[in-house]
Every structure is written in C-alpha cells, then in structure tokens.
Amino acid sequence: EARAARLHGAHIAFETVSVGATLHLRMAAALAEGRTGLANAAREPEIVDMAALLNAMGGRVTGAGTDRIDVEGVNRLHGAVHDNLPDRIEAGTFLVLSLMSRGALAVRGVPRAHLAALEAKLREAGGALQEEDGTVRVAGPDRWRAADISTVPYPGFVTDLQAPWTTLMALAEGTAVIRETIYENRFQHVSELDRMGADIAVRGSTAIIRGIRALKGAPVMVSDLRAGAALVLAGLAAEGTTEIHRVYHLDRGYERLTEKLRAVGADIERVPGPQV
Fold it and tell me: Does the reported pTM lie above 0.85?
C-alpha cells in the first residue's frame, strides 16, 4: 500500500531493460511534479505507442524508442482518441503458422517493421515472405530447416515468440538451439511438446531441439499465454487429436483465436472444461 500527495520527478536508471517497468514509471512520471529521466529504458514499439497516447492526452514525453526517455510532469491529462498498434506477437504467431502451412495462411495487418528479427529467422528456416494487397504469406518447403535463436530485448528476437518458434523447430530438419535470456522458467511448454513426440532437451536457459517429421496428438496443459500458442500450433500440425487444457491463458493475448483458425479451415473447437 503506497500513498503520496504527489510524486516528484527523479532520475531512474534501470539495471536491466524492462518493458513493464518502463511503461509503469513513465505513466507515474507523466503526472509527477518536475522532470523524470529514465535511463536504459525499453525501446519496444508499444513504448513508442503509449508515448504517442500520453502526448495526445497532454503529456510531455520525449525520447520514446531510445534508451533514454524524459518526462516533464503535468498537472492533469485529458481525453484523446488513439488507434493502438497491431499486435506484433499475434501477427508473428500467425506468420510462424503460415510457414507451417507452406504459405496457405495469409495474414493481414502485419506490422512488418516491428518483426524484422522474426522475418530474418523465417527466411533462414527456408521461408519466402510474399506480400500482396496488404497480406503476408510465408511459403516454404515441405520441411523447413532448423534455425537457432536467442531472445533479446527489442529489436532482437522477442521472447514472446520463443514458444511458437519452439514448435516450428520441433518439426524442422536438423537441430536447433534456443537460448532464453529474458525470462527464467520459460520452457514449460517443452514437456508438453515432448508428450506429443518432440525431441527437446532443456539445459538451464537453453533448449536443444532435434527435429522430427511428425507430432502426435495428446492431452496437454497450458502453463502460460505463449506456451498456449505453441501448443495450439503443435495441435494443428500433429497427427490425430490434441486436447489442450487451461486454454483461458490464451485469452490474454489472442482475440477469438478459435474462430479465426476455424475460418481458415482448422479443425479446432473450444469446449467447456470441468467446473472447478
């Protein structure tokens, strides 16, 4: 529990780059008295987008998109109209699925400028990106190649796409190495993919994936939002039926996912779970 008549400006240097910390402290600084400087700030597109909203509401934010953000506090904010950025993680998940479907899936509204690291890895895996009339497809061979990734802050490979990439690599030709440098314990989807026949070994913050030709349907459990996306992709690619439990995690980051996938031909259905 915290109280203050009004916060005052300060110089804050983050020990590690954090999107959440950057967003929260900048919002606090917007109405604080005086000037606040945030050093080693996150640079993600969402950071820039929120700065645009705050400024439209009367805030005074500069430097968004760089590692130094300055905020001059104001007495009050007012209403504004703002269009959010397209969700780059949702778009990136569908681009991975497009390669898994050999280009059969076309994705509209892809913020390609924000997904350069993913696009580079899709090409390394053998994907060919095709854009036409505002849609993007990722066509590729019957079996794509293994491609290593290391998750890093933006503009590098985003940690939120690590789990879907793991599913893609589980079916790749060759061996891929994934290094997770952002979050601890972010390989909880691996044990569930192993239930489906994947060959993945986790050693600390590194996963070694030996690609196989086919996954097999199995009952699996979602541990978090991005793990859920990975398991949905695995279920779509697997032979037989996959039951995915605790799918409510997906609702935090994917709007009407089941309906969108059914609309493009997926055999997927969301059914009520047991009452707890």
Answer: yes
